[in-house]
Amino acid sequence: MSAKRTVISGGLIISMDPELGDVTGGAVLIENDRIVQVARSADELAGVDAERIDATDDPARIRTASGGDPSPGGSSTPLAVR
C-alpha cells in the first residue's frame, strides 16, 4: 500500500529545529499522518508526487482531527484536510 502524500504550502511553520527556525510561506510534506519534511518554500518539494494544498487559499481547511493546527510528535496528531 502506497503512502498518501500531501504538500501544504504558504502557511506559517513554527519549527522546533533551531537551524530552520520559524518559516513564513514554507511547506510541509505529510505522508499518511506524519510530517516527514519541512521546507523553506514549496519549490524545495516541487519534485514530490503529492496532493498540493495552498494554505493561503483556505486556511480553515487545514486542521487536525481535534480541531487544532497540524504539529509533529505527541501521542497522535491525525491530520484532517477538509
Short description:
This protein is 0% helix and 41% strand.
Describe the structure.
Residues 52-61 have a biased composition (Basic and acidic residues). Residues 66-76 have a biased composition (Low complexity). It comes from Streptosporangium jomthongense. The chain has 82 residues and is mostly beta strands. The protein has one domain: Urease, subunit C, domain 1 (Roll). It has no helices and 6 strands. The protein has strands at residues 5-13, 23-31, 34-39, 51-54, 62-64, 79-81. The strands form 2 sheets. The protein has a 4-stranded mixed sheet, with no helix packed on it. The protein has a two-stranded antiparallel sheet with strand order 5-6. The two termini are 23 Å apart. Residues 74-82 have low confidence and may be disordered.
Q: What labels describe this entry?
A:
82 residues; two-stranded antiparallel ribbon; single chain; 0% helix; mainly beta
CATH architecture annotation name: Roll
> What fold name goes in the CATH topology slot?
Urease, subunit C, domain 1
**What would CATH call the class?**
Mainly Beta
Structural class: mainly beta
Domain count: the total is 1
Strand content: 35-45%
Biased composition (Low complexity): 66-76
InterPro entries: Metal-dep_hydrolase_composite
Organism: Streptosporangium jomthongense
Protein name: Amidohydrolase
